[in-house]
């Protein structure tokens, strides 16, 4: 039976950062990574951003060289089907077992699915292989429907418009894109960017299923509308993969694996990080984040903790997006239902502070403002009693 001092289930960003953190503190411990993905570890954000907009950036540039840099043994195409905490072993599909000293769950999330034919032209976008498929299908003649108005849907609609497919249609459930996060004026401006770049928007609608009709695909919406396309991209959300943790008897609440301030579960030899971890945050309370900054920071922290560090995880993650050359970043609770203080810096730069009922800043969004994240975190850690004092904090 194969055995590792440190075993990581999941081959994404978390596993890379965790492996590096382990190696910094333990030069000789063996590290194993069991990845269900068919590729070596890569950086996921590029799949909907840089690989589409930077012609000099390649898939090879997106690979993270985890094994080469850390000595970790990475097994791809390895699907773990169970964890036996008492024996400190995991079982793979096919029956092989792997023993561990300390285990990190970095299982990530699966795309939410709707009924659809088994056709490569229906892309439930999540992996590098999905990117390869969509890039191959995104021909100048292609009519593409993108289902879902969240980060992935928005970024892929913008990316597809940017590479010049024949038609891009984005179906989303809101009235304006990003209306649950952006103040109304910014949401209007953001939505207008898409229409100005040729993206057809279908608002207030959800897709119920995708059907094949001759050589075409048809997205059937909740009001019965039928939209015809050559390619359908589904980006309607992701569900954290917590099934292994739950079956192993670990505490799972509100869709996440509950961990302490060291990202340790209620089993002393098992940690969790990334999409699946439900952790205590000084600003947000117990929370869960499915963004790249959280994956990186929690991966580093979990790896260090596994290797003996007693440093608590205190990182409040930021999240970001970029479409049509415009980038925004945010930290904390950024919900448009909160009171907001908007601080325009110039025509294309804006800071939005989100306030709770007492007027205390609980979130910050920076539109077009570089290097604002650290100051945003400082604001949230010690917000002024008078919101007007926020106006000069981020410039």
Automatic annotation (TrEMBL):
Transmembrane segments: none annotated. One of its GO terms (biological process) is mitochondrial respiratory chain complex assembly. The keyword Translocase does not apply. One of its GO terms (cellular component) is cytoplasm. It comes from the Bacteria. Keywords: FAD, Flavoprotein, Oxidoreductase. Residues 4-297 form the FAD/NAD(P)-binding domain. One of its GO terms (molecular function) is NAD(P)H oxidase H2O2-forming activity. This is Pyridine nucleotide-disulfide oxidoreductase. It comes from Actinomyces radicidentis. The lineage of its organism: Bacteria, Bacillati, Actinomycetota, Actinomycetes, Actinomycetales.
């Amino acid at each position: 039976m194969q055995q590792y001092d440190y075993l990581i289930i999941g081959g994404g960003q978390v596993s890379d950062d965790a492996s590096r953190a382990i190696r910094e503190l333990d030069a000789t411990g063996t590290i194993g990574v069991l990845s269900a993905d068919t590729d070596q570890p890569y950086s996921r954000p590029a799949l909907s951003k840089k690989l589409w907009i930077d012609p000099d950036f390649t898939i090879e540039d997106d690979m993270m060289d985890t094994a080469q840099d850390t000595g970790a043994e990475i097994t791809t195409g390895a699907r773990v089907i169970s964890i036996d905490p008492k024996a400190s072993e995991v079982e793979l599909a096919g029956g092989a077992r792997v023993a561990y000293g300390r285990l990190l769950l970095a299982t990530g999330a699966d795309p939410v699915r709707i009924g659809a034919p088994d056709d490569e032209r229906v892309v439930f976008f999540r992996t590098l292989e999905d990117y390869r498929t969509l890039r191959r299908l995104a021909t100048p003649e292609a009519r593409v429907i993108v289902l879902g108005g969240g980060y992935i849907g928005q970024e892929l609609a913008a990316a597809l418009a940017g590479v010049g497919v024949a038609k891009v249609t984005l179906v989303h459930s809101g009235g304006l894109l990003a209306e649950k996060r952006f103040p109304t004026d910014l949401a209007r401006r953001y939505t207008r960017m898409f229409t100005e770049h040729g993206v057809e928007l279908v608002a207030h609608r959800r897709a119920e299923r995708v059907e094949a009709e001759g050589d075409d695909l048809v997205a059937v919406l909740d009001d019965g509308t039928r939209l015809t396309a050559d390619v359908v991209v589904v980006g309607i959300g992701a569900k954290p993969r917590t099934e292994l943790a739950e079956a192993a008897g670990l505490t799972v609440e509100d869709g996440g694996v509950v961990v302490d301030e060291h990202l340790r579960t209620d089993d002393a030899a098992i940690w969790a990080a990334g999409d699946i971890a439900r952790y205590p945050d000084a600003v947000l309370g117990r929370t869960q984040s499915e963004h790249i900054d959280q994956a990186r920071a929690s991966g580093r922290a979990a790896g260090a903790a596994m290797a003996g560090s007693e440093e608590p995880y205190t990182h409040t993650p930021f999240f970001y997006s970029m479409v049509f050359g415009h980038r925004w970043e945010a930290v904390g609770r950024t919900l448009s239902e909160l009171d907001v203080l908007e601080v325009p810096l110039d025509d294309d730069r804006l800071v939005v502070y989100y306030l709770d009922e007492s007027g205390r800043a609980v979130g910050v969004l920076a539109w077009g403002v570089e290097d604002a994240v650290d100051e945003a975190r400082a604001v949230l850690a010690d917000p002024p009693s008078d919101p007007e004092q926020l106006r000069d904090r981020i410039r």
